[in-house]
Specification:
Elements lengths: L2 H13 L13 H8 L8 E5 L5 H8 L4 E6 L2 H16 L2 E5 L14 E7 L8 H14 E12 L6 E2 L2 E2 L5 H8 L3 E12 L5 E11 L1
Parallel strand pairs: 1-2, 1-4, 2-3, 4-5
Antiparallel strand pairs: 5-9, 6-7, 8-9
Helix pairs in contact: 1-4
Bound molecules: S-adenosylmethionine.
């Protein structure tokens, strides 16, 4: 576990209400749209990597998905999400506090049908961190499974939450995932922060061949 990163994210989640976060979405529309293209069954597993306190989890529960896994380095983030969901809904989710760059638990998952990452990969600047992310993804995802990645686009911000980011386009994401994954669809999405400022993202949907 990268303790300083854990502390960094915990401090942010402690300091701000969820709807003040500079990545808060009331309705995670692009993720919902791409998930709909996956046509998976309600009992197939969806892993939200770096879920934070994302409303994507609320959406998945409301849509009737039964095998939802929310993983994040920050237990404060996940606790906020649990609180918002309430006991009954929260108990239907599997919660994992883990660091995707040094995973101790995530890599033990298997047969993941959808790997969803909004705004996590772009924080991984070191090659060894990216390599670990990718090897974990490849290990847990099932054949024919889907990967949805959203990252700051090439026109996007160079920093977030005080951290440098790596900007991506769909080809960079495709190169990152490699030949075992087919790019099915991508979209540019301009997210507006609570301040109203625009933040361009690239969203891409892949399928494991
Ligand atoms: C910008 S937020 C996005 C949160 C969520 N995906 C969303 O769209 O609302 C980035 C999230 O990644 C988590 N995170 C950052 N580095 C991580 C790591 N190495 N392993 C797991 N989670 C990480 C942070 O705690 C934070 O919740």
């Amino acid at each position: 576990m990268n303790v300083s990163m854990k502390e960094h994210w915990n401090e942010i989640y402690e300091a701000l209400d969820v709807d003040e976060l500079t990545w808060y979405e009331e309705i995670p529309e692009p993720s919902i749209k791409l998930l709909a293209k996956c046509h998976i069954n309600k009992d197939e597993s969806i892993l939200d990597v770096g879920a934070g306190a994302s409303t994507f989890i609320d959406h998945l529960i409301d849509q009737g998905f039964k095998n939802i896994i929310a993983a994040d380095i920050s237990e404060i983030a996940l606790n906020k999400l649990k609180e918002r969901l309430g006991k009954e809904k929260a108990s239907s989710v599997r919660w994992i506090v883990d660091d995707i760059t040094r995973p101790e638990h995530i890599q033990n998952l298997k047969d993941i049908a959808v790997w969803h990452d909004r705004a996590v990969l772009h924080f991984l600047l070191e090659e060894n961190e990216q390599r670990m992310y990718l090897s974990t993804l490849k290990k847990v995802i099932k054949k024919g499974g889907y990967v949805i990645i959203a990252a700051f686009s090439l026109k996007g911000a160079k920093k977030c939450s005080g951290l440098d980011v790596k900007n991506y386009d769909q080809n960079m994401l495709a190169n990152f995932l490699g030949n075992d994954f087919r790019l099915l669809e991508y979209l540019d999405h301009t997210y507006h922060m609570p301040s109203g400022e625009p933040r361009p993202y690239i969203y891409a949907l892949f399928q494991k061949i």
